[in-house]
Design goal:
six-stranded mixed beta sheet; lyase; FBA_I; about 270 residues; glycolysis; EC 4.1.2.13; alpha/beta; about 35% helix
Length: about 270
């Protein structure tokens, strides 16, 4: 059975100075492009990055969930969505392979048919509940037909409420369209949004995801998704909004150290 009691050992030595840290990042950043890495809040001892475990993404919006239900001839009702999510979240032995589960807002407050909260079902399997906090993409004015991610308005109060109901880390995903440029504007907007999200949502362990999309890619071979540990534009936006500079560098060093000790998974999965 999987456990979240895995202790993380932190090096207590002082982090490198700013110039050295940036050189360290630039030297090691290539090691991050094939591995999902989690930026963990400084001082957190219990990890969702336990060896041999993954993160289950069940944060489909109600509209997306409706498409899944329609494929098997079911209506998009709350009852059917609840039954679908119960099938996933109450699977016996799930905690042996999953350390965290990202939920949609509706799911966070839902229960099984027997009245047991889904969050409690996850706790029983020692799986850490998470919540998707972004509000999706909308057109970005002045861009090359690109989008930006909304959801910063009211984020602090929503995070406090989500934490009260059991969520212990959060996900914010933006998208950058590769064939459309990407334009400098959309890259900076994505980085700024991720940084502001991280600064606001530090009541939880923040999980950052930057999704690259390529419309010319075959649907049979979707674009790779990965966790973006280092932001863009000489890391300016990352360090503006993440944590104190030294803590941000320390978290990156820990992620790089862990990345060297984790073997890539061979089964298909997405975060």
């Amino acid at each position: 059975m999987g456990s979240l009691s895995h202790e993380r050992k932190y090096d207590t030595s002082a982090p490198p100075s700013s110039p050295c840290a940036l050189k360290y990042i630039e030297h090691h950043v290539s090691k991050l492009d094939t591995l999902a890495c989690v930026a963990i809040k400084y001082g957190v001892e219990k990890s969702i990055a336990s060896p041999g475990h993954g993160i289950l993404a069940v944060d489909e919006s109600n509209a997306t969930c409706g498409k899944r239900l329609a494929s098997i001839g079911l209506e998009n009702t709350e009852q059917n969505r609840q039954a679908y999510r119960q099938l996933l979240l109450t699977t016996s032995g799930l905690g042996a392979y999953i350390s965290g589960a990202i939920l949609y807002e509706e799911t966070l407050y839902q229960s099984t048919i027997d009245g047991k909260k889904f969050v409690d079902c996850l706790h029983h399997e020692k799986i850490m509940p998470s919540i998707k906090v972004d509000k999706g993409l909308v057109p970005l004015p002045g861009s090359n037909n690109e989008s930006w991610c909304q959801g910063l308005d009211g984020l602090a109060s929503r995070c406090a409420e989500y934490y009260k109901h059991g969520a212990r880390f959060a996900k914010w995903r933006t998208a950058v369209s590769i064939p459309s440029g990407p334009s400098t504007l959309v890259v900076k907007e994505a980085a700024w949004g991720l940084a502001r999200y991280a600064a606001i949502a530090q009541v939880a362990i923040s999980l950052h995801q930057l999704k690259s999309t390529n419309s010319s890619t075959s649907k049979k071979k979707p674009a790779e998704k990965y966790i973006q540990v280092v932001s863009v534009d000489n890391h300016e936006f990352w360090f503006m909004g993440f944590m104190h500079y030294d803590s941000a560098v320390k978290s990156l060093q820990d992620a790089l150290h862990d990345a060297q000790n984790i073997k890539p998974v061979t089964t298909a999965s997405s975060v």
